[in-house]
Amino acid sequence: MPMSDYLESIILNTVLNSVTYSEPASVYIGLYTVAPTDAGGGTEVSGTGYARQTMTSGWTVSGTATRAFNAAPVTFPIAGGSWGTVTSIGIFDAISGGNLLFWGTLTASKGPINSTDQLAFPLNTLAVTLA
Q1: Quick check: helix, strand or coil at residue 82?
Q2: Which of 10, 55, 65, 119 is exposed most, by the fewest CB atoms within 10 A?
Q3: pLDDT at residue 91, as a whole number
Q4: How far apart are CA 116 and CA 79, in angstroms?
Q5: Which residues pair with 69 in a beta bridge?
Q6: Quick one: pLDDT at residue 80?
Q7: How many angstroms separate the CA atoms of 85 and 91, rounded?
Q8: Distance (Å) of CA 52 to CA 11, 48, 75
Q9: What is the CB-side half-sphere exposure of residue 1 using CA atoms within 13 A?
Q10: CB neighbourhood size of 32 (10 A)
Q11: Peptide bond preceding 112: is omega within 30 degrees of 0, i.e. cis?
């Protein structure tokens, strides 16, 4: 899962320039119908009932410390209308707005997500990998 330009800048400045970074209290998963890039952008879902999901259980970091997996299922609310076809996810530092930290394209798109559908990612199915 690629890092955003924002996060890359934070890491470089923290490690190389001793700039203090205050990590977010939580991170949030958002859904996209058009993938963002490292610079941001893309088209985040905005349909009725949609909300980014808080990662309250955090992430499990693998023994190699280069990969982290969702430590609990991530379940989105039941769609109150059409959300379109979800192709990508983003990890943010805020429940709305905020900064994109990581993003990734799903191995298989989900949808279209219509009224009464519910999208969920089971335990250990979302992975953040550092190369």
Answers
A1: coil
A2: 65
A3: 97
A4: 5
A5: 60, 127
A6: 96
A7: 18
A8: 24, 12, 10
A9: 23
A10: 21
A11: yes
Strands (E), 2-131: 28-34, 43-44, 53-54, 59-61, 67-70, 74-75, 84-92, 100-113, 120-121, 127-129
- Per domain, the residue ranges of the chain are 5-57+74-117
8-state DSSP, 91: E
Residue 34 identity: V
- Cβ-contact 82, 112 below 8 angstroms: yes
Give long-range contacts, CB 8 A cutoff, 24+ apart: 23-26: 24/93, 24/94, 24/98, 26/54, 26/55, 26/56
pLDDT on residue 44? 98
Q: Which residue has the tokens 């707005």?
A: 97
Residue carrying the six token digits 């320039």: 17
> What residues of the chain score a pLDDT lower than 50?
none
Hey, what amino acid is at 102? F
Q: Which residues contact 97 (CB under 8 A, 6 or more apart)?
A: none
**Residue in 95, 125, 126, 89 with CA at minimum distance from that of residue 4:** 89
pLDDT in tens, 49-68: 999 999 988 899 977 778 89
Residue in this structure with the two tokens 């550092």, named with its chain if needed: 130
